[in-house]
Amino acid sequence: MVDSVLFDLDGTLWDAIPGITRTWNKALSDLGVNKVCSEDEVRRYMGMTLDKICSSMVGEDDPEKIKRLFDAISGGENEGITREGAALFPEERETLALLARRYRLFIVSNCGRGYIERFLDLFELGSFFTDHECFGGTGLSKGENIRIVCRRNALVSPVYVGDTLGDQLAALHAGVPFIHAAYGFGETVSPDYVLSDLRQLPVLLEKI
């Protein structure tokens, strides 16, 4: 029986693509990088760590510019995302409230430091979650961060909910059953379970 649910963030708990796109393009422009990201391109980057995203955008042969872009995005992304540039999924607050009555809830993301806190503060959802971890906090892979959260909170029977193949591989690395949030940004290969709507999660967990 499931005792806890770990969530990915982007594409799983919110869609902040408009706000992220504006922030990334401002950082690129400020650094003089001749590139403009579309929202579709930003969606394709979701699931990657920020250092790899920056390398992809400016080229791996310019480590100084990669670092400057990383710092600019890390510093501006949290403040640059507002309620106008991000959205929850339908009836998400009600769904999380229902889940939190029975399960301990967590977030594990490849984001930078402060990004998860921005999500929680912006939509006042902090009371539903016990703990969270991210690449910006540890410098480790998502699979390792899932393991850290599981150990730190003595989780016995967790599941991980995410929307990309990277999420699936991270859950596999951590030895945690994976639920594909098929309403999100990416695709997976033969996931353990499939969720077409976040509102269906309470019912799905009853069957696991």
How do the helices and strands line up, and which of them pair or pack?
Blueprint lengths: L3 E4 L9 H14 L8 H7 L4 H9 L4 H18 L11 H9 L3 E6 L5 H8 L8 E4 H4 L3 H11 L5 E5 L2 H10 L3 E4 L11 E3 L5 H7 L1
Parallel strand pairs: 1-2, 1-4, 2-3, 4-5, 5-6
Helix pairs in contact: 1-4, 3-4, 8-9
Report on the structure:
This protein is of the alpha/beta class and 208 residues long. The chain folds into two domains: 4-15 and 86-207, Rossmann fold (3-Layer(aba) Sandwich), CATH 3.40.50.1000; 17-84, DNA polymerase, domain 1. 47% of the residues lie in helices and 12% in strands. It has ten helices and six strands. It has helices at residues 17-30, 39-45, 50-58, 63-80, 92-100, 115-122, 135-138, 142-152, 165-174, 201-207; strands at 4-7, 104-109, 131-134, 158-162, 178-181, 193-195. It has a six-stranded parallel sheet, with helices on both faces. Helix 6 links the parallel strand 2 (104-109) and strand 3 (131-134). The longest helix has 18 residues, at 63-80. The model has no long low-confidence stretch (mean pLDDT 92).
State the CATH architecture of the largest domain: 3-Layer(aba) Sandwich
Briefly, what CATH class of the largest domain?
Answer: Alpha Beta
**Could you say what the CATH topology of the largest domain is called?**
Rossmann fold
Number of domains: 2
Spatial gap, N to C terminus: 7 Å
Q: What share of residues are in beta strands?
A: 5-15%
Strand and helix order: EHHHHHEHEHHEHEEH
Oligomer: single chain
Strand order of the largest sheet: 3-2-1-4-5-6
Question: Which word captures the global form?
Answer: globular
- What is the residue-mean pLDDT, rounded to a whole number? 92
Instruction: Please tell me how large the radius of gyration is.
Output: 17 Å
